[in-house]
Amino acid sequence: MELPQSIPPEVRSRATRVIALVLDVDGVLSDGRIVYDEYGDELKFFDVQDGAGLVYWRRAGLRSAVITARKARLIRRRAKEMQVDFVAQNALTKLVAYETFLKRFRLAHEQVCAIGDDMMDLPILRRVGLAVAVPNAVEEVKAVCHYVTSRSGGRGAVREVIDVILKAKGLWDEVSRPYYL
């Protein structure tokens, strides 16, 4: 399947070099709301299509990381369900966790796509080969990104980016083939 014509040539080109995806949680994988239940446990709202996209991502042999400044048991659980390779919670300086991810998987900055929405994501977004913001990201984040998704964080933005990259790399047909049988 082809990429939509609305994807700029620069984004297409950058996407072909990507083999790893780095994600923030609040506002990117989740819709940004933090809800506490009556026992004080944290709840977040995730999109099932983002999760499916990350499974396709893994099926294509690509790497992924979740790097978040917050810490919650449910983040580890969701990351496991989505087959994420690397999880860093309580990462107040996200760049340190990002550098650890690069070293562990022998990655170069230009091989990474990162999706962010707020100031803490800027150090990573400024370094990666493909920097992506969600529509409700702060202006400083949008200003350094190569692409802004049409779908919101926690509402399919991650899946949108995964689809763009897999199609740009010519991997979409391979990962979606089992569903056409």
- Mean pLDDT, as a whole number? 93
Number of E-state strands: 8
Strand order, biggest sheet? 5-4-1-6-7-8
Helix content: 40-55%
Q: What overall geometry do the principal axes of the alpha carbons give?
A: globular
Task: Give the class-level CATH name.
Answer: Alpha Beta
Going by CATH, the architecture would be: 3-Layer(aba) Sandwich
Radius of gyration: 15 Å
Write the CATH homologous superfamily. Answer: HAD superfamily/HAD-like
Question: How much of the sequence is in beta strands?
Answer: 5-15%
Unreliable sequence segments: none
Oligomer: single chain
Secondary-structure element order, as H and E?
HEHEEHEHEHEHEHEHH
In CATH, the topology is named Rossmann fold
Description:
It is a single chain. By secondary structure, the protein is of the alpha/beta class. It has one domain (9-176): Rossmann fold (3-Layer(aba) Sandwich), CATH 3.40.50. The chain is 40% helix and 15% strand. The chain has 9 helices and 8 strands. The protein has helices at residues 9-16, 25-29, 48-59, 73-81, 94-105, 122-125, 139-144, 157-168, 172-176; strands spanning 20-23, 35-36, 42-43, 63-67, 86-88, 112-116, 130-133, 147-148. It has a 6-stranded parallel sheet with strand order 5-4-1-6-7-8, sandwiched between helices. Helix 4 links the parallel strand 4 and strand 5 (86-88). Helix 1 (9-16) packs across helix 8 and helix 3 (48-59) runs parallel beside helix 8. It is globular, with a radius of gyration of 15 Å. The mean pLDDT is 93.
